[in-house]
Amino acid sequence: MRLETHVEGCVNGTSFCGIGFGDWDAVARRSDARIVFDRFPDTFAPTLCRSWHCKHHPPRPEYSPLAGVKSWEVRGTIHYAGAAEGAIETSGVSRVVGDAEVGFARFHGAYSGPTRLDRVLRHRETIWPAASGFEVRGRREAIVEGERVISIWEERIAILDGTIRPDLAPFAIDYEWRAWSWEGLVYQKSLSVAGRKVSPVSVDRAAAADVPALERLFEEAVVRRYPPGRGPADWKPDFARWIASADYAVFAARSAGKLVGFALAKAERAESQDFLAPPFGELVYLAIEEPAELTGAGTALYEAVLDWCKKEGLPQLRATAHGWDAGLVRFLERRGHRRSVVVSDLLAVS
């Protein structure tokens, strides 16, 4: 399939437009594109944005969300964290004309951070069927000028011309950045994609038999995610005590028979500084293994904690997150939490 892309926008106060051409090879599962701009902000780079193309590039035919669809609209927001900050609103319309896909994309917002991409650590999207379209969740972690930059985006695809396949299940796409360059006003990239269906996630109370798997996941999804020098190397979680205690609740997320995430909640019956304060629940940890991110496991665990708080008579749920843990901070903010205390990069959200 031939690709044609028209781009316009305004980032950090600089307006720009561009036009690009490329190809999608369904056999090799590879996308190649080249975009030429008239101007571009020197405080940003197209390599920092999400894919400039739409979602018509399934890794396997059975995953195609847009088979038979001739036109669709995309709207979303990209949030930046880690060594960068800012948000960019995105919108666009794509149409299939013969054997070509023509896209019109717009990007408006602000970005502050490094701009020269060194390498992409991981880049994944999950696509979920929804009413009259799809919901897309994406996350990319990259090293940019030696620092980690995290991009998180949420998009909504609305079908304008065509119908959605009734048998389509949620699926995930992993992108491999084979090559890229940003020289002058010319942006070139080559991506390969691999996909898999998203298995349903179930949540239950963790049992003593889950302790070894919980400890492994704690090491992989909590300790190792700390920036160098910030995470204690000798942390020893006490899952056996937490599971047995009436003041704690440990929930396990499972997919295809495997433990892929957990949440640890604690009941605070009285605050040490104010004994007149009402009791509350505290979300101590929420961790998902990397392959299961963006699959709904975090939402299922969070809802299980909320239900537990209601049953325990805890009218409020509080949480603690680190500023560099952009995924968790954004996850909590989307669910109505607000930042109440900031100590260094430690955020108390309630």
What features would you highlight for this structure?
mainly beta; Green Fluorescent Protein; Aminopeptidase; 11-stranded mixed beta barrel; 7-stranded mixed beta sheet; 12% helix; disordered C terminus
Protein architecture, described:
The chain is mainly beta. The chain has two domains: 2-197, Green Fluorescent Protein (Beta Barrel); 201-349, Gcn5-related N-acetyltransferase (GNAT) (Aminopeptidase, 3-Layer(aba) Sandwich). The protein is 12% helix and 52% strand. The strands form two sheets. The chain has an eleven-stranded mixed barrel. A seven-stranded mixed beta sheet has the order 12-13-14-15-16-18-17, with helices on both faces. Strand 7 (117-130) and strand 8 (133-144) form a beta hairpin. The longest helix is centred in the last third of the chain and has 15 residues, at 297-311. It starts with a strand and ends with a strand.
